[in-house]
Design a protein that fits this description.
The protein has 89 residues and is of the alpha+beta class. 19% of the residues lie in helices and 46% in strands. It has one domain.
């Protein structure tokens, strides 16, 4: 059993609702200085796998905002991190 304490964060949706999610990993690509967070709401899909979400963290307004990943090359780099993470499990 993993006894590490879970890292939680609150997400404010566009409609103003607040949701607590579990942070799996936060990381930054040094070359682009872009930050990302991988998190879960501990939902399971039809194959009983836990659904994870990935967002770009935008701190330009002072308050961190979670943004979608639009760029395909950027998304491919993030998927590489996800693959490495799944190997480590």
């Amino acid at each position: 059993m993993d006894n590490q304490e879970k890292k939680m964060m609150s997400i404010v949706a566009e409609d103003g609702s607040v949701e607590e999610v579990e942070v799996i990993l936060a990381f930054e690509f040094k070359d682009t200085k872009k930050e990302y967070v991988i998190y879960t709401k501990n939902e399971k899909d039809e194959n009983d796998n836990i659904t994870v979400y990935v967002s770009n963290v935008d701190r330009s307004s002072g308050e961190p905002k979670l943004m979608g990943i639009e760029d395909e090359e950027e998304w491919n780099r993030v998927k590489d991190v996800l693959r490495e993470l799944s190997k480590a499990e």
